[in-house]
Amino acid sequence: MRTPERRGNHAAHSGGIVIHLGLPTTISSLLPQDITIGPNSNGLPGIGQLRSIVGASMTIGLILAVLALIISAIVWALGANSSNPHLAGRGKVGVLVGVGAAIITGASVALVNFFWNVGQSV
Q: What is the value of pTM for the model shown?
């Protein structure tokens, strides 16, 4: 019986040919070990104006949420006062939507920062 010969990166075995490419060491040497990329506040022109636009849209969103809350509370009161349960129910839903919109608009920056930090820890 003949012993297995070693030629290059493969060896002949009784079960067939096994090729050793050394992939784990090759792939790990090709991948960067430490990537440090963070938000850049001066990489694109107009970042300051974009921040102003986002801040203004948040202000408009909060004003509209308060307006929706006021109108919905009036509808709720009119529905309850006139014994109209459908109108009162719509007013209640409007109040909840207005409160939810105000919470999401006010907490949007904190939510984005929270999930940014969660993504950085992965």
A: 0.62
